[in-house]
Design a protein that fits this description.
The protein is 36% helix and 20% strand. The protein has 132 residues and is an alpha/beta fold. The protein has one domain: 3-Layer(aba) Sandwich (Rossmann fold). A 5-stranded parallel sheet has the order 3-2-1-4-5, sandwiched between helices. It binds [cytidine-5'-phosphate] glycerylphosphoric acid ester (C2G). [cytidine-5'-phosphate] glycerylphosphoric acid ester binds next to β1, α1 and β4.
Length: 132
């Protein structure tokens, strides 16, 4: 069954993250594996200018604890995706459609699927709602 790979920050974990991961796992089926690359704090700051509310170790532990997730790896740079697809024998790469088209270069290696985002929720919104 297919191995599926996705990437994200997963800060202030919320239902939008969960829905994305569960839909990614559904593509892997019972025998396939869902591998999730969680962005490190350094990558988030250096590459996305994002300061996380929750440190990498805790974000990775939360994602790893999910029944639908089989393996968690660190995301340390934009360029690692090509190697990760090879290394983990990935058949399907999945991202939310806010990234639509951004990873089509992986289509030479695997299927690329963009799922509709869950509206009305984001880590930024959660933070703002909480702290104003
Ligand atoms: N997501 C979603 N619905 C939301 C929020 C997020 O479906 N309401 C999806 C995003 O599209 C993404 C995943 O959940 O596929 C993780 O979202 P983020 O943690 O915001 O990840 P991001 O900062 O976009 O990092 O190299 C890719 C990057 O690491 C992605």
């Amino acid at each position: 069954m297919p191995n599926v790979l996705t990437y994200g920050t997963f800060d202030l974990f919320h239902i939008g993250h969960l829905r994305l991961l569960e839909r990614a796992k559904a593509l892997a089926g019972a025998d396939g594996k869902l591998i999730v690359a969680v962005s490190t704090d350094e990558f988030n700051w250096n590459a996305k200018q994002k300061k996380c509310a929750i440190p990498y170790e805790e974000r990775a532990a939360i994602v790893a604890a999910l029944r639908c997730v089989d393996k968690v790896i660190p995301e340390e740079c934009w360029e690692q995706k090509t190697q990760d697809v090879e290394k983990y024998n990935v058949d399907i790469f999945v991202m939310g459609n806010d990234w639509e088209g951004k990873f089509d270069f992986l289509q030479s290696q695997c299927e690329v699927v963009y799922h509709p985002r869950t509206e009305g929720i984001s880590s930024t919104k959660s933070n703002t709602d909480l702290h104003g």
